[in-house]
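Colleagues,

For the teaching module next term, I've prepared a clean inverse folding example: a structure given as tokens, and then the sequence designed for it. I'd like students to try predicting residues themselves before seeing the answer, so please don't circulate the second half yet.
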């Protein structure tokens, strides 16, 4: 039991460090947010969906306490952090084309929710044009591919070597 708790604590620590970096390093915010989202997938792999959801909620709440600039947490809370759960739910023995359709739909729903909340928190009017709509789709597909590579690497190289 203590190995599980220490594993979760280390993952939460990595998560919070990456979220902190995303709030202070201006050029690589998306990179650090993407890295911060990976521990959620590891918790789901090791301990199941319920634990993954609780980990996400805990990491979001802890980040609201620790991170000073809350604006940079909006993408994590409304997109990156929850994506591990969304990806797990979508990738269940479905046709790959259907999976990507569901992923793009979920991406757009999560982005729109974040957009409307961001707009009302910051009180600025962001305009959405064709580029502002298509570019996040492309970035999302690259993110999803990299996320999948990370999960595959974890399954193939790391999972069997740690004893929890």
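(Answer key — instructors only)
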């Amino acid at each position: 039991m203590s190995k599980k708790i220490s594993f979760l604590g280390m993952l939460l620590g990595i998560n919070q460090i990456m979220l902190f970096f995303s709030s202070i390093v201006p050029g690589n915010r998306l990179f650090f947010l993407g890295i911060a989202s990976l521990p959620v997938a590891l918790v789901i792999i090791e301990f199941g969906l319920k634990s993954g959801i609780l980990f996400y909620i805990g990491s979001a709440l802890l980040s609201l306490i620790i991170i000073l600039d809350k604006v940079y947490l909006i993408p994590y809370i409304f997109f990156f952090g929850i994506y591990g759960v969304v990806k797990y739910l979508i990738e269940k023995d479905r046709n790959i084309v259907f999976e990507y359709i569901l992923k793009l739909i979920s991406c757009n729903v999560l982005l729109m929710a974040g957009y409307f909340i961001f707009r009302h928190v910051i009180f600025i009017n962001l305009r959405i044009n064709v580029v502002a709509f298509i570019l996040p789709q492309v970035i999302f597909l690259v993110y999803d591919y990299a996320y999948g590579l990370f999960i595959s690497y974890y399954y193939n190289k790391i999972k069997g070597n740690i004893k929890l």
